[in-house]
Amino acid sequence: MLDESGLDGMFRTARTPRRWTTRPVEPHLLRQLYDLVCLGPTSGNCSPARFIFLTGSDAREKLRPALSAGNVNPVMGAPLIVIVAHDPLFFEQLPYLSPQEDLRPWFAADVGLSEETAFRNGTLQGAYMIMAARALGLDVLPISGFDQSAVEDAFMAESGWRANFLLCLGYGDLGSLPPRAPRLAFEQACVVVD
Questions:
Q1: Cα(26)–Cα(178) distance, rounded to whole angstroms?
Q2: Domain ranges, ordered by start, for the chain
Q3: Chain segment 124-157, per-residue pLDDT in tens
Q4: Residue ranges of the Nitroreductase domain (predicted)?
């Protein structure tokens, strides 16, 4: 179990930045991030998430036209941008990822099931990346305000992957953040069924 300091860093005192310091994200952290993310559970170990790390100015400029106006500055200022995507044909990897079960035919024969599974589990893996980034001392800004088709055309035309959301990673300038926004109480958001 994480100690109080660990829980603070992951949840209680972690904040979502809107501005970034100039400190870069060290290149070795990309592999460390993925090495943690890939260990999180997915159904049948399907692991459909795919991650595109944008580190250079050319990649950022390719992304810029796809961003909604309010997201341009926070995204373009981030030291590292990750496109969280999923592979609709994730099931082609199932003989390797889940060799004890013959799961590939289920998904290959049912487009609806495979799309739902890829989106749900890819989103879950994107959330693992948020937690992994925080565990490694990075701040995270998730972004959903962008043109999905434009991002896919610019970065995934050959792979056929589907964009889900963006993660901006780095070291946030947290000094001017307003107080944390309210959250729903347990009684408002949870039901316990016996």
A1: 28
A2: 4-189
A3: 999 999 999 999 999 999 999 999 999 999 999 9
A4: 14-171
DSSP of 81-124, one letter per residue?
EEEEEE-TTGGGGHHHHSTTS--HHHHHT-HHHHHHHHHHHHHH
CB contact at 8 A, 133 and 100: no
> Which tokens is 96 given?
């390797």
pLDDT tens digits along 3-32: 999 999 999 999 999 999 999 999 999 999
Contact 73, 165 (CB under 8 A): no
State the Cα angle at 166 between 151 and 160, rounded to 5°: 40
Look up the pTM and report it.
0.95
Cα–chain center distance at 108: 25
Among the CATH numbers 3.50.80.10, 3.40.50.2000, 3.30.420.40, 3.40.109.10, which is that of 4-189? 3.40.109.10
